[in-house]
């Protein structure tokens, strides 16, 4: 991606993701390892904390503090005094009030200052809910044990292999240099479930004249239909022939320009 395209980013976390991809950090774990190496702390607990923070920063849930921001600038090779650094810090400042506003919102679950005195009816209702929850958990465990049907579906109730996968944004107009390879798209499965294997996706992909498509591994993408992030399979493009072409992937149109 050209530097002007990066400067044109409208939100900080989108710019952060693009810079991570440009630096080759498609996986949060690799970026977390580099981060810990830079600060000189390779403790497992520190690594887990950094990994969780990176996941929150890349998804736009939270913002890094100023000290973390400077570390990220070093990792992502953002040069001081450049227009890119100015835009990076400007977007960070713009996002701060929104994050503070969200944090300041009252927690509706804490409005009630004292718990109500339980009645026999409410106690009976809670007991029924508890029974239903226990029955659901037992049914889930039984299904998992009886042939692994739940696990095989790719759905994970708590955690899964795509939880820390890179987030691939959709950009319809792409410019790449000949010889460059990077993810350009991510194909999701059912909401919350793991995507199809590469071999199953390949027959539906278009023939491309200016380069070739390849498996980018597990990723995540923002989906309006799923109302948030969902697991996906990244598709990488390797630019090999100078020129411009248009193609379509799953109903999304791309204009690809390959330069020397």
Question: What kind of oligomer do you see?
Answer: single chain
What's the main sheet like? 3 strands, mixed
Instruction: Calculate the terminal CA-CA distance, rounded to whole Å.
Output: 14 Å
Gross geometry: globular
> How large is the share of residues in beta strands?
15-25%
Order of helices and strands: HHHHHHHHEEHEEEE
Main sheet: strand order: 1-6-5
> In percent, how helical is the residue content?
40-55%
Strand segment count: 6
Strand pairing plus helix content: what structural class? alpha+beta
User: Total number of helical segments?
Assistant: 9
Q: What is the C-alpha radius of gyration, as a whole number of Å?
A: 23 Å
Tally of domains: 2
Mean pLDDT: 77
Residue runs with pLDDT of under 50 for 5 or more positions = 102-123, 129-158
SSE map:
Blueprint: H1 3-7, H2 12-22, H3 28-39, H4 44-59, H5 66-75, H6 83-104, H7 120-145, H8 149-152, E1 173-177, E2 181-188, H9 198-201, E3 211-223, E4 228-239, E5 243-249, E6 252-259
